[in-house]
Amino acid sequence: MAQEKTPEWAADKGSGFELGTDGPRVIMAGVDGTEASWRAAAYAGGLARRQNALLALVYVQPYLAMSGVYGADVQGATAEVADDLAREISEHAERVKNVYTTRWKFFTRRGDPYTGLAQAADELKADAVIVGASEKAGHRLIGSVAVRLVKAGRWPVTVVP
């Protein structure tokens, strides 16, 4: 009886490949408290759970140019929004922890939303970027953060309606 020979491509030669480590490692979602961003976060959470990837939720605190002129405490207000988002995410994660678990982290930064999300995706080495469709009418004319991320072409981007 002939003995079967292991094909050369299947022989373990210390190639570094490990079973179970292929697929996405980081799925990033941009959140800002809008309904579309929560849908994007839920979609990204499902992807991360099924792929056993880290779910990175990123909120970019916007700078408002004229706020200093009027004496508004924009920095405090946007930090409060970030705290509220983190609290809502934690509460939701706590409610579903017995049903399924997803590894997640919340990140916040300051600046332009497109620039902040792009830098976060690069730093986190995101395998996918998930954002909600813009709910602002003006973005049809000048472009939204989602469109700018897609046009950058540096990561797979999913825009959730």
TrEMBL record:
Species for this entry: Nocardia macrotermitis
Listed transmembrane segments: none
Domain of life: Bacteria
Protein name according to UniProt: UspA domain-containing protein
SUPFAM superfamilies: Adenine nucleotide alpha hydrolases-like
Pfam families: Usp
Signal peptide (UniProt feature, chain positions): none
Domain UspA: 25-161
Family membership: Belongs to the universal stress protein A family.
